[in-house]
Write a structure and sequence with these properties.
Length: 128
């Protein structure tokens, strides 16, 4: 989102939604939605026979919905370290992959107070 904060856009082609999440609950830049729509238009042109693109649902979307990431406001007081928003994005991607959209939206089971342990677990997985 800027040089020090990360957020994530989820394009749910099956449910026809555009979702957004970040741990500071910021609004994405005004250029994000038009850019995502443009990318979807390009995919639609490239994949004319793909059923998920035969309806340009995104043309009528005026804002992205939030998918409900935990907030990291006041998290610095816990001494959990920097880079929390990047770990948040990694954990959100993991949740979307393993639990799907319905199992992830507004159903986060981790919290920023656990960040030290979550970061260690991610590093162990990367090393393996």
């Amino acid at each position: 989102m800027n040089e020090t904060h990360r957020g994530m856009i989820v394009i749910d082609l099956l449910s026809r939604k555009l979702l957004f999440g970040d741990s500071f609950k910021l609004q994405p830049a005004s250029s994000v939605l038009p850019t995502i729509k443009y990318i979807l238009d390009v995919f639609q042109q490239l994949m004319l026979t793909a059923p998920c693109f035969n309806n340009s649902f995104w043309s009528s979307i005026n804002a992205v919905e939030r998918f409900g990431t935990p907030s990291q406001h006041n998290c610095g007081l816990t001494g959990q370290g920097a880079g929390r928003c990047g770990v948040c994005v990694i954990l959100a991607v993991r949740d979307f992959i393993f639990k799907g959209v319905n199992g992830t939206v507004n159903q986060s089971v981790w919290h920023y107070t656990e960040m030290r342990d979550l970061r260690k677990k991610l590093m162990i997985q990367i090393i393996k």
